[in-house]
């Protein structure tokens, strides 16, 4: 059995890195993906889906070093469900429910170079491209 998810979006906040008890680095960050369309009535619609991403080991160290809020990124990995096999369900502060899709990253590709806080371009790079073609993204 095999499962892989690929998302392309923007980093939603500054990544945070911590270490497991065994000393392995883990970087967590969120990615927003958006879909835009126009209804038959002419009304423009946008749907945004958020993903929580965890990158371990060297991949975690590099993503923590180079990703910043707003970075465009491609993430390949596997969905990590809750104990029942579903997305994690939570209650927002306003009482409504939400769900969280979590991905354990196998590959992270930096796609853009947004301006950093000091106005300088952010460094670009890639980690373990896993044979991913450098051509245009087909979606």
- Class based on secondary structure composition and strand pairing: mainly beta
Please name the CATH topology: OB fold (Dihydrolipoamide Acetyltransferase, E2P)
What is the number of beta strands?
8
Domains, number: 1
* Terminal CA distance: 25 Å
User: Under the CATH scheme, which architecture would be assigned?
Assistant: Beta Barrel
* CATH hierarchy, class: Mainly Beta
How is this structure best described in words?
The chain has 139 residues and is mainly beta. It has one domain: Nucleic acid-binding proteins (OB fold (Dihydrolipoamide Acetyltransferase, E2P)), CATH 2.40.50.140. It is built from one helix and eight strands. Strand 2 (16-19) and strand 3 (25-38) form a beta hairpin. The longest helix is centred in the middle third of the chain and has 10 residues, at 57-66. It is globular and about 55 Å long. The model is unreliable at 115-139 (pLDDT under 50).
Topology:
Elements: E1 5-11, E2 16-19, E3 25-38, E4 44-56, H1 57-66, E5 72-79, E6 88-91, E7 97-110, E8 126-127
Parallel strand pairs: 4-7
Antiparallel strand pairs: 1-3, 1-5, 2-3, 3-4, 5-7, 6-7, 7-8
Summarize this entry quickly.
This protein has 139 residues and is mainly beta. The chain has one helix at 57-66, and strands at residues 5-11, 16-19, 25-38, 44-56, 72-79, 88-91, 97-110, 126-127.
